[in-house]
Automatic annotation (TrEMBL):
Ion transport in keyword set: no
Keywords per UniProt: ATP-binding, Cobalamin biosynthesis, Nucleotide-binding, Transferase
Enzyme nomenclature, EC number: 2.5.1.17
Pfam families, sorted: Cob_adeno_trans
Catalysis: reaction(s): 2 cob(II)alamin + reduced [electron-transfer flavoprotein] + 2 ATP = 2 adenosylcob(III)alamin + 2 triphosphate + oxidized [electron-transfer flavoprotein] + 3 H(+); 2 cob(II)yrinate a,c diamide + reduced [electron-transfer flavoprotein] + 2 ATP = 2 adenosylcob(III)yrinate a,c-diamide + 2 triphosphate + oxidized [electron-transfer flavoprotein] + 3 H(+)
Cobalamin adenosyltransferase-like domain: residues covered: 3-166
GO biological process: cobalamin biosynthetic process
Lineage: Bacteria, Bacillati, Bacillota, Bacilli, Bacillales
Pathway: Cofactor biosynthesis; adenosylcobalamin biosynthesis; adenosylcobalamin from cob(II)yrinate a,c-diamide: step 2/7
Record protein name field: Corrinoid adenosyltransferase
Amino acid sequence: MKLYTKTGDKGKTHVIGGRVDKDDVRVQCYGTVDELNSFIGLALAELGDERFSDIGSELLKIQHELFDCGGDLAYVSPNGEKKLKEEAVAFLEERIDVYSDEAPELEKFILPGGSKAAAYLHVARTVARRAERLAVALMKTADMRETPLRYLNRLSDYLFAAARVVNFRLDIKDVEYERSAIVFKGSGKRKQ
């Protein structure tokens, strides 16, 4: 099998149900999901330590779900097969709660970073937010289910919570944004 087809040499690409320009918002959206998946793979490669077996297995699960998400976003017709299930959103919510309870209380905004693995998770979080913004743009021009949008929203929260837990387990403190007021009152476990 050849890896190149030459069918995209004039700026068009196949989506499920047709052909569109390569800069179409649909292509940008699922392309950003692919980029996100790559950054998660990079973070996963850094988490070989047994202390992170839970996060590692979850990230692998998430990589498969991101393929499902990208596939769903590539359907021109809203009636196409849907692979990403609502249970994936519920799973992320459950894990966010677990990691929020494990990490130290959060009162101020923090800077992305700490360990290399946490930094990769923060990069993935920002790419998830970009994918979410593109999904919103796609929803304005095309019929699509809301599950991919909800999934991307929760995934960015999950990646934030996981990055904080990685640093915590490595005994690396989050770096607070030095000009931040106390913005998280009460439980202090809210997302950034």
